């Protein structure tokens, strides 16, 4: 199929392009759209035939449910069978923004969207282009706009690379601000529980709600066959073709370790400035101790490693608090949980 590219620079001037994207979605087509987290591969969340195409285009396993994106808080009442008080508190503080809430699903949500679960994931993005397209179309199911397993896309070029020829259109809205997928919290159990860390931090969620548990899958590998709260967590994810190993240590000891390694195709995935002291080629992902810049760069850096032909990558370990927890969670999956402590 021919994939149209809509370059949107101005919400008002480019309104006809946004309308064309919305019309494709209303007709049951697929459009990759920019959000403040990563690019999303959108389809009408309430149209099972349209949602089916998302799974096919991404090669996504059918038991991995999708996040439904809305433009106004009130839309949640048409999608959820129950809106807990905690959801209202979180929406008040963090919506529109990079937070997804899991709530009991309403009858309007087709089984394919929630992958047969009795719950639905809902998010109100803050990106003006995403919001405008939702406003002009309908609630949108939109997982990350990458091929399943590969790093999520943070530019339209990444989307063209993964999905060109597989989707009806790609809306280019520039680079995504945060660079990692939304924080996911479930409000459908007895206690609120963090399923996936993101730019809204565990600390901020606890500040808003009091007690918030952290799901085991955030930091540890799930055995095949084990029951998981968030199916997405069990799959291989974000992985470049190169083998990645996380190396936990300070800048000095990391560089000593990297410089001692011998072999073909070894790369460092490092913080800014460290590449100058390394004797191997390096890709930079953010600044030391600036988790927000690390999140912003991580997926593009993983893609760059592949483009440069890396075979074995030793990656600097981020800290594990705040947004660093989201960076660490993604890097753990890119590394298939392989970590060396110096
Ligand atoms: P993606 O949109 O590709 O970033 O993936 C969405 C993430 O949200 C995946 O990890 C899903 O497993 C998770 N998710 C979506 N819906 C639900 C749900 N109803 N219950 C638990 N996790 C969900
Ligand atoms: Mg994804």
TrEMBL record:
<keyword id="KW-0067">ATP-binding</keyword>
<feature type="binding site">
    <location>
        <position position="37"/>
    </location>
    <ligand>
        <name>L-threonine</name>
    </ligand>
</feature>
<feature type="binding site">
    <location>
        <position position="144"/>
    </location>
    <ligand>
        <name>ATP</name>
    </ligand>
</feature>
<feature type="binding site">
    <location>
        <position position="196"/>
    </location>
    <ligand>
        <name>ATP</name>
    </ligand>
</feature>
<feature type="binding site">
    <location>
        <position position="238"/>
    </location>
    <ligand>
        <name>ATP</name>
    </ligand>
</feature>
<dbReference type="GO" id="GO:0006450">
    <property type="term" value="P:regulation of translational fidelity"/>
</dbReference>
<keyword id="KW-0548">Nucleotidyltransferase</keyword>
<dbReference type="GO" id="GO:0008033">
    <property type="term" value="P:tRNA processing"/>
</dbReference>
<comment type="similarity">
    <text>Belongs to the SUA5 family.</text>
</comment>
<dbReference type="InterPro" id="IPR038385">
    <property type="entry name" value="Sua5/YwlC_C"/>
</dbReference>
<feature type="binding site">
    <location>
        <position position="182"/>
    </location>
    <ligand>
        <name>L-threonine</name>
    </ligand>
</feature>
<feature type="binding site">
    <location>
        <position position="119"/>
    </location>
    <ligand>
        <name>ATP</name>
    </ligand>
</feature>
<feature type="binding site">
    <location>
        <position position="123"/>
    </location>
    <ligand>
        <name>L-threonine</name>
    </ligand>
</feature>
<keyword id="KW-0819">tRNA processing</keyword>
<dbReference type="InterPro" id="IPR010923">
    <property type="entry name" value="T(6)A37_SUA5"/>
</dbReference>
<dbReference type="GO" id="GO:0003725">
    <property type="term" value="F:double-stranded RNA binding"/>
</dbReference>
<feature type="binding site">
    <location>
        <position position="69"/>
    </location>
    <ligand>
        <name>L-threonine</name>
    </ligand>
</feature>
<dbReference type="InterPro" id="IPR050156">
    <property type="entry name" value="TC-AMP_synthase_SUA5"/>
</dbReference>
<protein>
    <recommendedName>
        <fullName>Threonylcarbamoyl-AMP synthase</fullName>
        <ecNumber>2.7.7.87</ecNumber>
    </recommendedName>
</protein>
<feature type="binding site">
    <location>
        <position position="60"/>
    </location>
    <ligand>
        <name>ATP</name>
    </ligand>
</feature>
<dbReference type="GO" id="GO:0000049">
    <property type="term" value="F:tRNA binding"/>
</dbReference>
<feature type="domain" description="YrdC-like">
    <location>
        <begin position="15"/>
        <end position="200"/>
    </location>
</feature>
<comment type="function">
    <text>Required for the formation of a threonylcarbamoyl group on adenosine at position 37 (t(6)A37) in tRNAs that read codons beginning with adenine.</text>
</comment>
<feature type="binding site">
    <location>
        <position position="152"/>
    </location>
    <ligand>
        <name>ATP</name>
    </ligand>
</feature>
<keyword id="KW-0547">Nucleotide-binding</keyword>
<keyword id="KW-0808">Transferase</keyword>
<dbReference type="InterPro" id="IPR005145">
    <property type="entry name" value="Sua5_C"/>
</dbReference>
<dbReference type="GO" id="GO:0061710">
    <property type="term" value="F:L-threonylcarbamoyladenylate synthase"/>
</dbReference>
<feature type="binding site">
    <location>
        <position position="64"/>
    </location>
    <ligand>
        <name>ATP</name>
    </ligand>
</feature>
<dbReference type="InterPro" id="IPR006070">
    <property type="entry name" value="Sua5-like_dom"/>
</dbReference>
<feature type="binding site">
    <location>
        <position position="142"/>
    </location>
    <ligand>
        <name>L-threonine</name>
    </ligand>
</feature>
<dbReference type="InterPro" id="IPR017945">
    <property type="entry name" value="DHBP_synth_RibB-like_a/b_dom"/>
</dbReference>
<dbReference type="GO" id="GO:0005524">
    <property type="term" value="F:ATP binding"/>
</dbReference>
<dbReference type="Pfam" id="PF03481">
    <property type="entry name" value="Sua5_C"/>
</dbReference>
<dbReference type="GO" id="GO:0005737">
    <property type="term" value="C:cytoplasm"/>
</dbReference>
<keyword id="KW-0963">Cytoplasm</keyword>
<dbReference type="Pfam" id="PF01300">
    <property type="entry name" value="Sua5_yciO_yrdC"/>
</dbReference>
